[in-house]
Amino acid sequence: MELQMWKEILMPYDLAVEELKVKFSHIMKEYKQSGGYSPIEQVVGRVKSISSIIDKAQKKGIDIDKIQSQLEDIAGIRLICQFTDDIYTVVNLIRGRSDMRVKSEKDYITNMKPSGYRSYHIIVLYKVETVNGTKEIPVEIQIRTLGMNFWAIIEHSLQYKYQGNIPEHVRARLTAASNALITLDEEMSSIHDEIIDAQNFYLIKANIVSDILGNIQNLYKVANKREIIKIQDEFYELYEEGDISKLERFNRQLDIIAEGYRAQAT
Ligand code: 0O2
Question: Three-class SS of residue 240?
Fold first, then answer.
């Protein structure tokens, strides 16, 4: 097949990946903006390279003309989560969406692969609008924790280095690493609530600080310089102290001061 032909075939896959990256990133943003914790930590996506498509088609005995109907991971999205439980939250989120249809699911977390690979795979059918009309594209969504992702990336590189024949002693160490990561994921899940509290604390503080800085910036336009400098110094002191309730109280006072200036102006 000519390069131009490949490019045309892969175009809607590229569109599907780009659109889904935006959509999943937006889910993260929505959770974080409402001051909450996002079950998705990171979103990545890719269209399989032409050489990987040819390799995989050959390995699976798929005719090149049939790759579009028989290869389901040409378009791939990877969603990275902090905790194993988050993976199932994300799976439910995907199942409930109206813009993609779940075709199949594989739970390699409950049923780990013999290699030690763990991840949750969902094939969804996703519609894109191209200049040649609507196309329904299969997209493989891999959902894993940071630990599972770390292991898969390392193992993938070793597969590549040893051309699929990883020596037994390396394989044994990979299995040990996979077991260690299972323990790590379980350990992290057991302090799940504490970690989320810490992250929420950080987010709340960041939101208050951003509000305070906005208020100070607005006061610059209306208040006198000496008052602003006093407010700023007070803010730096409170920031160093790091007490959220004091910062909240300070922000409320700034709101009242700003309100007073607005009232004066009208
Ligand atoms: P790439 O380069 O990541 O795209 P098969 O591929 O024949 O095993 P199937 O049904 O096509 O079977 O897919 P499967 O096994 O559900 O998942 C395919 C993808 O999952 C792989 O794509 C990898 O990304 C990942 N994967 C599956 N098993 C392993 C594993 O043991 N180690 C690692 N590191 N990744 C795995 P590709 O096309 O193989 O590779």
Answer: helix
Q: How many angstroms separate the CA atoms of 203 and 209, rounded?
A: 10
pTM of the model: 0.79
Which of 19, 72, 140, 155 is catalytic? The answer is 140
User: At 124, which amino acid appears?
Assistant: V
Query: Is 140 an annotated catalytic residue?
Result: yes
CA of 186 to the centre of ligand 1 (A): 24
The structure tokens 């989120």 sit at: 93
Given 2.30.30.30, 3.40.50.2020, 3.30.460.10, 1.20.1580.10, which CATH number is that of 3-167? 3.30.460.10
Q: Give domain limits for the chain.
A: 3-167, 194-265
**In which residue are the tokens 């990561």 written?**
181
- Atom nearest to 153 CA in ligand 1: 34
CA 62 to chain centre: 32
- Cα–ligand 1 centroid distance for 116 (angstroms): 12
For ligand 1, whether the C-beta of 115 sits within 6 Å is: yes
Ligand 1 touching residue 73 (CB < 6 A):
yes
Per-residue pLDDT of the chain (266 residues; tens, 9 = 90+): 788 889 999 999 999 999 999 999 999 999 888 777 899 999 999 999 999 999 999 999 999 889 999 999 999 999 999 999 999 999 999 999 999 999 999 999 999 999 999 999 999 999 999 998 999 999 999 999 999 999 999 999 999 899 889 999 999 999 999 999 999 999 888 888 788 777 778 878 888 899 899 889 888 888 888 888 889 999 999 988 888 889 999 999 998 988 888 766 65
State whether the beta carbon of 66 lies less than 6 angstroms from ligand 1: no
